[in-house]
Write a structure and sequence with these properties.
- The protein is of the alpha/beta class.
- The chain has one domain (4-239): Rossmann fold, CATH 3.40.50.
- The protein is built from 8 helices and 13 strands.
- A 9-stranded mixed beta sheet has the order 4-1-5-6-13-12-11-8-9, with helices on both faces.
- Helix 3 crosses helix 4.
- The longest helix is centred in the middle third of the chain and has 16 residues, at 88-103.
């Protein structure tokens, strides 16, 4: 059986000194897709939005990766003073890619920034900065405590009778956490499937699509050491078959 092509969106590493700007992607994404039986194909951050259909035409599934903040202009808001770095080229390609993938009912897995892009593509909004706009006793940016990316730091509650529950086989999952933004108003057609103990949304899915799953954490970083994280990639790649 032919292995399935999984498109993974890349980020922009800005120009530094005499170096050119670069397309970047953390290696665990490709590793997790390959271990699950897929073939990763990197999609560049680009302002050429007309290429979105061409990219999708060679893919079997789309993985929206994590990264910097989405520009609030994409969901009709002004920048908050605590907004972090944004990547306009990435916004420019990821939003049309996501909307077209949804229209074509292509299997889609969205991670961290990716679930935020998915939400915005369906007319949802974000908390631009959790500490100042929402507050929590949970540290959602474990890098501030110098905790490695493969380590888990808090537990999420998963709603029963959801795809996420079916995949991991539990209503609880320990996750890592690398975000200062989160879903606020939920996009049209999405169902919330998991929360952190402080109420922050940690996962969504779309019942009307063949396969649309988004998580706020980074299972690619824990897939090598955590079965539930590995099962997320295996289920996604299986869905594109």
């Amino acid at each position: 059986m032919a292995r399935k092509i999984i498109g993974i969106t890349c980020a922009t590493a800005p120009r530094q000194g005499l170096e050119s700007a670069r397309q970047t992607l953390n290696r665990p994404y490709a590793w997790a897709v390959e271990q699950a039986g897929g073939v990763p194909l990197f999609i560049p951050a680009t302002s050429y939005t007309e290429n979105a259909n061409a990219y999708l035409s060679v893919l079997d599934g789309l993985l929206l990766s994590g990264g910097v903040d989405v520009s609030p202009s994409q969901y009709g808001e002004e920048d908050d003073p605590e907004l972090g770095e944004v990547d306009p080229d990435r916004d420019s390609i990821e939003l049309p890619l996501t909307r077209l993938a949804l229209e074509q009912d292509m299997p889609l897995f969205a991670i961290c920034r990716g679930v935020q892009i998915l939400n915005i593509a369906l007319c949802g909004t974000l908390y631009q900065d959790l500490p100042s706009q929402r507050g929590s006793w949970i540290q959602h940016q474990q890098r501030l405590a110098a905790i490695p990316r493969h380590c888990v730091t808090h537990t999420i509650h998963i709603e029963p009778d959801t795809r996420l529950h079916q995949i991991v086989g539990s209503t609880r999952m320990a996750t890592n956490s690398f975000h200062h933004q989160a879903l606020k108003q939920i996009g049209a057609g999405l169902c919330v499937t998991a929360h952190a103990r402080d109420g922050i949304i940690e996962a969504v899915e779309s019942p009307k699509h063949r396969y649309v799953l988004g998580v706020q954490f980074h299972p690619e970083e824990t897939a090598a050491v955590d079965e539930k994280s590995r099962l997320l990639f295996e289920d996604f790649v299986r869905a594109v078959g």
